[in-house]
Fold this protein.
Amino acid sequence: MNRYGITVTVANRPLLDLDFLPIGRFNREFLKTAQKPVGVAVERADGQIAAVRTRIHGTPEMADADNYYIERLVKTLLWMKGGFCVYVEGDRNIFESLKAAYAEGGAQEFDFHFMSQVYERPFEVVYTDALPSEKDAPQAIGGHLEGCRIGFDAGGSDRKVSAVIDGVSVYDEEVVWFPKTTADPQYHYDGIVAALKSAAAHLPRVDAVGVSSAGIYINNRTMRASLFLKVPEDLFDQKVKDIYIRAITDTFGDIPFEVANDGDVSALAGMLSIGEPNVLGIAMGTSEAVGFVDEKGRITGWLNELAFVPVDAAVNAMRDEWSGDIGCGVKYFSQDGVIKLAPHAGIDLDESLSPAEKLKVVQRMMERDDPRAAAVYNSIGVYLGHTLAYYYELYHMHHVLLLGRVMSGKGGDLILATAKRVLKEEYPEVTERIVPALPDEKFRRVGQSAAAASLPALK
């Protein structure tokens, strides 16, 4: 396979997507012939900086390859760690290319606006002669088991709630809902409150509430979240930014609570389950939700929105309808990935079904050992094997916990087995360093809400 003059050889390719070009593999081949030093950095809240020093070719004939490599690197940094300002050192042509891409009307206009809204700061690309130094601020959060707690997990297809007493779940509930297609935020508020009250009915009292929710949360406020995709901007500011704060305090008054990204909670759940830190949690459900607990058991404060991090460098890679970009994780490690691959396997899905219902059709086929469904899950496993090797370069995690409805049942088992095979055959240097694993079936589906209950410390 060739992209921008960079030739990449891949032994394991997804049977239903033979054009898949692992971006980690592309990067490796690109760097073999790149000699000119450059640096990029992104700045996020409280002066935190993520910086990378790398190389490009710096020649006119390789300009397209250079611009593509650096733009994908910057996009990865933005969605992995977050940021409202991009710094460029070492090459003004790269700077001009990034400035044009991350601007009003540019190729990455979505990212430009999104990051501005998240950090409530104008987004900018700046040339510098001295790249700023890295600065991080990881936090110790979660793992609090004492008392009577409620954990709420808001997914795009269903909401889950757990009532927990001294670390033991005494009640779990799953309810189907449709937050991504509903414009009235009262629907979301009422659903949250109903779940909280349902769990509270099984507790003698409520000491604290923890929330796991898809999206980006700063100081318990909803900055951006696909769960509220249809809510108009004015109503989002009025009713959604503080929706969890209002729902909890309106229901229980002044009690401790904590709202965290569902990916971070999946990583926390992994740490509690495994008993060791340095965990990357990946929840494959409505989207790809990712979180990370570092080697000291801390949540990093990074965005970890790997749903929007590029994993496929193919020119015809799958396109995400929301961001408009191609080749990003959401189309490979979510129910969308299953739905997109199903027709290539000869599976005809009724278009009147919801995405969650389409996933269930393929899951039922897999439980009957239908080879068409197996081809879908096998292809996702190949995606995952290549991508875990790339994620290792980004996080240097040891444990990988795979959660979410896509990982349920026989399909999840096949995904994991295929990913391990790809890692062993193509990335032997990584195989011994990471341990991908599945929790038990119930934990895959509702364990996240129980882990969310441990987020807040009691007063």
Remarks:
- The mean pLDDT is 93.
- Residues 187 and 318 are 32 Å apart (CA to CA).
- The chain is about 40% helix and 20% strand.
